[in-house]
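Notes from the 1:1 (GR / supervisor)

We went over the backlog. Supervisor wanted to see one worked example end to end before approving the batch request, so GR pasted a single chain during the call. The sequence is below; no edits were made to it. Supervisor asked that the structure be written out right there so they could see what the output format looks like.
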Amino acid sequence: MVGGAGAQAGVDDLPVGPDKTVMVRAMFDAIAPRYDLVNRVMTFGLDIPWRRRAVRALGLPARSRVLDVACGTGDFLRILDAAGLQAVGVDLSLGMLQAAPRGRAVAQADALALPMRDGSFDGATCGFALRNVSDLGAMLAEVARVVRPGGRIALLEVDEPSGPIMGLGHRIWFRRVVPRIGALLSDAAAYRYLPRSVAYLPDAPQLRAMLRQAGFSAVGRRSLGGGVAQLLTATRAGVESPRPR
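Structure output shown during the call:
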């Protein structure tokens, strides 16, 4: 896992703050038309089973309201709907929302300022977007604000295998091969940035600490795909309230 001081050093030549927000929005607008195709190729289709596992990890009953933050083209929304949950998506990129199937409950919004009432959701998901927000702590605090006490969250993000052989293979694939696939199928600059964006991610202990600081308890973390991805789960702290309708 790239994190801690090493991650901060890697961020020095990457955009931060408002500049990062502007760049990320423009980048995802540009790659939206072929985003799903590149995702399937670069993860060998594993991102879909990972999302299904994340939805199961929520452990929420049917008809629970779930917010998908950075919903993109709607992969999580489709899986949440198939599980009998009432899904709502938000994304910074209008291009990504326009590439999503029609008929979904979506809105364009910054994850740092969600246009939802306090405690209005039973749970929340986020797929591979933690490293793309300009202030991760503020984003987690916003998710905590809109999820009711006792609600559940499941967050997917990339990771780096700790073993030497898997680690080497992953670095070659993610840092060298994926940018070439992106250049061939979509946008070269975007897929050069995405592997480098791992430098924004805190390490696992820091991520857990940030979730607790934001207002979550029972924070868990599972390694996926031999360590190439991670699933973070947590429960909104506080006295459990009735599910909002």
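Supervisor's comment: Strands lie at 65-69, 86-91, 106-108, 121-127, 147-158, 216-224, 229-236.
Batch request approved.
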